[in-house]
Amino acid sequence: MSVAETIVGEAYSLITQVASWFLALPLLQRVLLVISIPFVYSITWQLLYSLRKDRVPLVFYWIPWVGSAVVYGMQPYDFFSKCQEKYGDCFSFVLLGRVMTVYLGPKGHEFIFNAKLSDVSAEAAYSNFTTPAFGEGVIYDVPNWKLMEQKKFAKVALTTDSFIEYVPLMREEILKYFASEPAFQGKNGKANVLKTQTEMTLFTASRSLMGRDLRNKLNASYAAWYSDLDKGFTPLNFAFPYLPLPSYKARDEAHRKITETYMELINKRRQQPYVHDKDLVDALMNNSTYKDGTKMTDQQVANLMVGVLMGGQHTSAATSLWFLLHLGERPDLQEQLYKEIKETIGDRDLQWEDLQKMPLVNNTIRETLRMHHPLHSVFRLVINDLPVPGTKWIVPAGDYVLASPGWSMINEKYFPHANQFEPHRWDKLAGSGGGFQGQGGSNPANKDNEDNATVDYGFGQISKGVSSPYLPFGGGRHRCIGEHFAYTQLGTLLVTYIQNFTWTSKVPEPDYSSMVVLPTPPAEIQWKKRE
Ligand code: HEM
Ligand SMILES: *[C@@H]1O[C@H](CO)[C@@H](O)[C@H](O)[C@H]1NC(C)=O
Ligand SMILES: *[C@@H]1O[C@H](CO)[C@@H](O)[C@H](O)[C@H]1NC(C)=O
Ligand SMILES: *[C@@H]1O[C@H](CO)[C@@H](O)[C@H](O)[C@H]1NC(C)=O
Ligand SMILES: *[C@@H]1O[C@H](CO)[C@@H](O)[C@H](O)[C@H]1NC(C)=O
Ligand SMILES: *[C@@H]1O[C@H](CO)[C@@H](O)[C@H](O)[C@H]1NC(C)=O
Ligand SMILES: *[C@@H]1O[C@H](CO)[C@@H](O)[C@H](O)[C@H]1NC(C)=O
Ligand SMILES: *[C@@H]1O[C@H](CO)[C@@H](O)[C@H](O)[C@H]1NC(C)=O
């Protein structure tokens, strides 16, 4: 008999002995034993884990595999604060069988946003979730160097020259919406901002980025496609990207219709080559050739358009509905905004340059992003054992790291009276120019960061340091490219709302369970038309 056969034989006899012992037990004991095994295993595992000196402290949990999923999923910021009191800024928790290492505050931002490409992967963490909605060959379905180039291709349509063209197009969409949307008819009424802001964001972004020729297609059918695409864009995707569910089928069908529409736009423009709008279609038609010489296909270009649009859709829609809800509680701010707008443009039509002369409009957006960061967590998969600086801890490959700028931005330590909506807290920073995100020493909460250094990961210069508590647009190689677009779109929306209406509302509690942090319904404003 060979050694292997002996081992197999021994193992077999051990298994049969255990099995016959188990089967001889009374039924109740058998059931209890089966139920308790995972618990005993989980608690033993946690005990052994907590004894390791090279591991980040682990938050204790009772339910095996599920871990802290429920508390985290319902109230992530409260959960983080409670854990921070116990363990400090860096701790781990179990989420549906995965170990997540959270690092709160500016040092955590540095640790995660500026982690090396060889140590962490965003695509491994996000692809299940984004690829079915955006389509293949773009964003997190490609190696990082391609994503960096795709961001560079798209950024061509996110410059000042483009924004100057976008503002009148966005204005037209907003006014068209006010004139036709049933919720805004008459002298006064009630509007569900979850609905109106989703639609207005989609229409203003599509009209500007996808070009003026899309105008007649921006109707209820177009909104319905995006709504179907959205329904398949849920946290469920993280674990199960492809299920035979009707909502997933509708998602795939919507993706096909939207990208076909975008490819039609591309083909139409090929037939009239002298028309150049400075939009995303034009930018990607001009150059979507990677530096290795390969070209993106039309389908991939259309997918990238969906990805860029979706990247801005939920984030901007959420931001605009939160500022509407807050301003509804602050008629004084509405009047100050009205005055600022009147003094800047009088009765003339809004232009992009005007937005640069309205600090209160800017600061209202900035303050809304502080209190309501749309994304409460950003993730990376650790692909190479990652030491936590200044400690003996190592986050092992296979675990996830999690940063939460949203938590810092509502923390008293960094923002006194953090739970008060106060755009004027930013007044003294007006004119701080390029540092408006609060990076590079322009933020008083960031005095010790005198480092103005920048870095280019392939899509333009960005701030190198990310150790600011105020980071609504992230940092490092995955930093948002949509910041200026978002300010342009949100500024245009805010100005147009203030010009047309006054309103009241009550700010609802945030609901953290959806993709972005949204208000718990009902989320309504009671509006009156301005005379
Ligand atoms: C208020 C609006 C917005 C907020 C708060 C926001 C926030 C963010 C954040 C935090 C990230 C980094 C994610 C990470 O590190 O995992 C990001 C990335 C990104 N955002 Fe935005 N965003 C907004 C609007 C937009 C808009 C309007 C666009 C498109 C025009 C856009 C396109 C992107 C893209 C392409 C990335 C890069 C993803 C990557 O490199 O992995 N975003 N955004
Ligand atoms: C929306 O526009 C498209 C394209 O012009 C058209 O086929 C569709 O019937 C329209 N839908 C509605 C609800 O008006
Ligand atoms: C992605 O989905 C696959 C199943 O298709 C699953 O095995 C994997 O764990 C998922 N990845 C993440 C990061 O959840
Ligand atoms: C595309 O190239 C044309 C011709 O060089 C130029 O006029 C146009 O502005 C470019 N489009 C964008 C969005 O940069
Ligand atoms: C297009 O982009 C590639 C890669 O980013 C770059 O090398 C090339 O110079 C660009 N071509 C034009 C015409 O701008
Ligand atoms: C408003 O923010 C934008 C960033 O999009 C910036 O370019 C502009 O200078 C700011 N304007 C004021 C008045 O602070
Ligand atoms: C950073 O910029 C500020 C203001 O522009 C300047 O006063 C400071 O000296 C700069 N710091 C470094 C390290 O360059
Ligand atoms: C909204 O305000 C603008 C600018 O004052 C005006 O041109 C437009 O007619 C108004 N729209 C509605 C629906 O009242």
TrEMBL record:
Enzyme Commission number: 1.14.14.154
Domain of life: Eukaryota
Main subcellular location of this protein, as a coarse class: membrane
Keyword tags: Heme, Iron, Membrane, Metal-binding, Monooxygenase, Oxidoreductase, Transmembrane, Transmembrane helix
Enzyme class label: oxidoreductase
Entry binding sites for heme: C480
Cofactor: heme
Coiled coil regions in record: none
GO molecular function: heme binding; iron ion binding; sterol 14-demethylase activity
Entry-linked SUPFAM superfamilies: Cytochrome P450
GO biological-process terms attached to the record: ergosterol biosynthetic process
Catalysed reaction, written as an equation: lanosterol + reduced [NADPH--hemoprotein reductase] + O2 = 32-hydroxylanosterol + oxidized [NADPH--hemoprotein reductase] + H2O + H(+); a 14alpha-formyl steroid + reduced [NADPH--hemoprotein reductase] + O2 = a Delta(14) steroid + formate + oxidized [NADPH--hemoprotein reductase] + H2O + 2 H(+); a 14alpha-methyl steroid + 3 reduced [NADPH--hemoprotein reductase] + 3 O2 = a Delta(14) steroid + formate + 3 oxidized [NADPH--hemoprotein reductase] + 4 H2O + 4 H(+); 32-hydroxylanosterol + reduced [NADPH--hemoprotein reductase] + O2 = 32-oxolanosterol + oxidized [NADPH--hemoprotein reductase] + 2 H2O + H(+)
Family annotation (InterPro entries): CYP450_sterol_14alpha_dmase (IPR050529), Cyt_P450 (IPR001128), Cyt_P450_CS (IPR017972), Cyt_P450_E_grp-IV (IPR002403), Cyt_P450_sf (IPR036396)
Record-level GO cellular component terms: membrane
Compositionally biased spans, kind Gly residues: 432-441
Region (Disordered): 432-454
Membrane-traversing stretches: 20-44, 56-74
Subcellular location as annotated: Membrane
Entry-linked Gene3D superfamilies: Cytochrome P450
UniProt pathway annotation: Steroid biosynthesis; zymosterol biosynthesis; zymosterol from lanosterol: step 1/6
Stored PANTHER family: 24-HYDROXYCHOLESTEROL 7-ALPHA-HYDROXYLASE, CYTOCHROME P450 FAMILY 7
UniProt record similarity statement: Belongs to the cytochrome P450 family.
The name this protein goes by in its record: Lanosterol 14-alpha demethylase
Gene source species: Brettanomyces naardenensis
